[in-house]
Amino acid sequence: MSTFFARLFVKNWEKTGDPAVRRAYGTMVSVIGVIVNLLLASGKIIAGLLFSTVSVTADGLNNLSDAGSQLISLISFKISAKPADRG
User: Fold this and answer.
1) Could you give the CA distance from residue 50 to residue 52 in angstroms, rounded to a whole number?
2) How far is CA 26 from the centre of its chain?
């Protein structure tokens, strides 16, 4: 599955020694992580509210916090891609 996504979204996906390709992999994985965790969170929160189960709702909120962590990872990949300053 990861090879499938790499072929779709990462240019020169087989050249993993290239720093630009590694950044592209990191960005791809972070974006997929955010999307999957948001889908899981929404499904679990909806199911938890429909069936009045606190544990499923709480697990959905946990997935929401995981999506936030992946978002921070995505932002850090974007910041690390910037060129170094003089200082």
Assistant:
1) 6
2) 9
Residue 76 token pair: 């850090």
Cα(34)–Cα(68) distance, integer angstroms: 7
- Look-up of token digits 């916090």: 65
| Distance separating the N- and C-terminal Cα atoms of the chain | 42
pTM beyond 0.70: the answer is: yes
Q: List the pLDDT tens digit at each of the 87 positions of the chain.
A: 777 878 777 888 778 787 888 888 888 888 888 999 999 999 999 999 999 999 999 999 999 999 999 999 889 888 887 888 786
Displacement of CA 34 from its chain's centroid (Å): 4
Which helix H or strand E contains 80, and what residues bound it?
helix 54-80
